[in-house]
């Protein structure tokens, strides 16, 4: 860990401002230092700090660019912290990775880093910063050189390989058009290299030439296309000071002051015109003065936008829009600017936290510590010398310091300015905010201005002004490389020491292909090679196309290369990417893919063409499968052909579908872990999104907010909003329209069409057993999970597929699902591990955690428990062999119970069981354990690992048992609010001696009918419609009389419906006497007809004055079982019950009176015809008369 040493020195080349004497500026200076010191301690070299977790996070998963150091270094110099600046210089020389890492970045972020490096270089005269700046500047040039018109592409796919990102849409934010405009010009001055000035000048000229400037060529619409060289149509688009418009104009101001050439003068004139034209944005009402958007040529509603708070500072920097020989009233512009910045400050001070919301809407209440208001206050005070702005600035700082600063000195973004909850992030731009506030208060204190010969670039970085005497070098010998400019793609750089030209050209081509560029074809590859080969020795020729046997035509989609039975791998695509693409195509069609297939195919290709020049793993060579821990949820394995960002989002989606909460921060850390070990085409996760729509309720329009987390499919988010609105009473048509509008909005920036918002169901048939059932795949679920679950369920209920044909069956099911939903992974392979002479077998459909628990329990039963390390290794071996999310055994956890001892729960044990055992031991030893101790102990354990049971049995005051699983689970859910009632499992028994025990009684004959109907409809898995077990197959089509006439057949096919003494613990329909077990006099019995009333009254004192909802009756449909003449089945049913369940009948008669069930009253065979009524589920209700 780097130690931060603070030294004092004033040896810089530029004269530093004096140290402050006023408490206000000194307080800002101290806050700046402590915020940076916290970053240096916990996140040195990384982009951002997570101050609460004391961890780092990078903007791109592949590695950092040091955003915070670049943002803060010039401010440290301005405040006199020279020792810290020198440590930043050591970082720039030794750790800055822009030239080496395969990092993806936005051009705006990267040029701000460039500006920070240049600013600290010119201020401190430390050449180490210039070296880093030059390295970064050369890596950024492809964004400018590849541009067909001049302004840069908004994103760079790979800094090292010089490839820009392929735009997902045809337009980008207009503010990105000026990214690097000032910084590249300053870099040219610092390095004397003309290539940087040429890029800046070309960019500026292209900005002037852009089509679509509005308001007589003065204002830029918010979106633009650099390929078309035009802004968005002003008749349909939007002009906005709040979406970067003010930032674009501020860059023109800085560029206009930076040099004394015609382009600079033209930039100044355009900035002045923009200042005057921007006054049309301004609108005032009772809430203050704001800069509204211009929508389709008309001024929009007066919505506050924090980024528009940069507009007053822009007006001040243009001398209030002054232009020679133009009608000008500077005083009125000053007044408007004062009103604007005053409103910006008031919007902040009016909130609970004293921070301004990012927007005036429910979706924009984040206090993100942005610098726009602080910069406007600085420029307004500097232009007017009015201390009023310094007073406002200090008010802002005090609120910022009070609400956003956390222990240790760092600042944290506020998630909601009206609530005050903090996000765990300290964004780099907080140093820009503090820097402007410091200079504002310092200049107000000293009544002086400092560094007047510098311009303020993006990020508040101070860059020098040209004096016109600079001579720039046109030669590029310092690059020590040949550069091929490929329009719309990037720069192919061939180092002078590269032995084979083809190596560099093919690496560039492979990166371009990975980025999605299709225009760099084999012709372009050959042309690039020829251009370089004409200037220097070429080495080996290009690889050419390698031919390899494929599967069948159609495996790869027709519009992609390789759609044939013989696959041709062209020179523009790296072998590793081709193999990955083939594997992805197979998975998306539901076909099996193994690691051996991928590795063998890749090895075959590398025998046919060179592979070594693509680099060793993990970047371009075929990655290995990687497994990362995702405690407490298990682990995630990413296969070589999988994109880590996609796999992580699928993991989060699957976890959400199972009710697990997973934080975005955890997923970002996982992505960073993967991308530092292997190639990642996508280095960021999707953003969390919000959308606000107007919903018509018939009486008035209401605003509804739809939230879409990074893992959420857009259609799913729209469905949730629609369903929520309907539940809130919004008309269906209006709710549907709102859902469609939200879907349209989200689908503009996210992939749609995955059908993750619908439920899919596939009917399964077997040649021998007829109907097997249906494999259901709910919303958000991955098809491989659904297929594995279906097979797991079929084995559980007795229907076991032939294992030799299981793979083919699962493949057919996967192919069906993958035509209807995007598939991310194939079905898991089988795993077999031998450990200490025992074999752990995990089939494709098995749940790893269950198999690991059984395996560990076997050793524990032999008194040879496996160690934590052994279990960890076993879990890793199992999960690393299975793609995707793997739920494994949790870690050993323990708690200290005061006055009793330590409770340790091993991975295969349940924490609640361990605490029950501890309580029993304590009682025998005469030690007291309170309910509060037990409850807190369980909470502590369950915070560290997953718990299947969230109640400690020992805390209960009442035990409760119900013979039916459906109702039993419902009662368990109903009593979750109280720890005083515990629902016993089917294998538990109570004697009623230590604590009251209540057992529910139902007429045994009704229980038997329900059990038979339950099995006839698929048993436990009927929710999945998994019907193909032997009992179901035998019961299908039979009525009650037919079934009970063949009790041997029933016994043979339905797992012991006969409750003989040797079958009591295994029969499907377990007799009640088993639970009573000789303690009838000590047990309380509840008859089913009175259950709701009696049990509700019984547990009411434990439910905190709330109603404990009780279950409805078992929803089995009995009508199919009874058939056409239900009255004829009474004798058979009565005879069967009295033969096998006579003691249950007697027990029911003793405690519930006559043998009348809640829905049937049974008589003898000579009873008259019954009157038939329908029950709540459509089943017949029989009232027998003797």
UniProtKB/TrEMBL annotation:
InterPro entries: 6hp_glycosidase-like_sf (IPR012341), Glyco_hydro_47 (IPR001382), Glycosyl_Hydrolase_47 (IPR050749), Seven-hairpin_glycosidases (IPR036026). Disulfide bonds join 309-344. Coiled coil: none annotated. GO terms for molecular function: calcium ion binding; mannosyl-oligosaccharide 1,2-alpha-mannosidase activity. Its cofactor is Ca(2+). GO terms for cellular component: endoplasmic reticulum; membrane. Its EC number is 3.2.1.-. GO terms for biological process: carbohydrate metabolic process. Transmembrane segments: none annotated. Keywords: Calcium, Disulfide bond, Glycosidase, Hydrolase, Metal-binding. This is alpha-1,2-Mannosidase. It comes from Pelagomonas calceolata. The lineage of its organism: Eukaryota, Sar, Stramenopiles, Ochrophyta, Pelagophyceae.
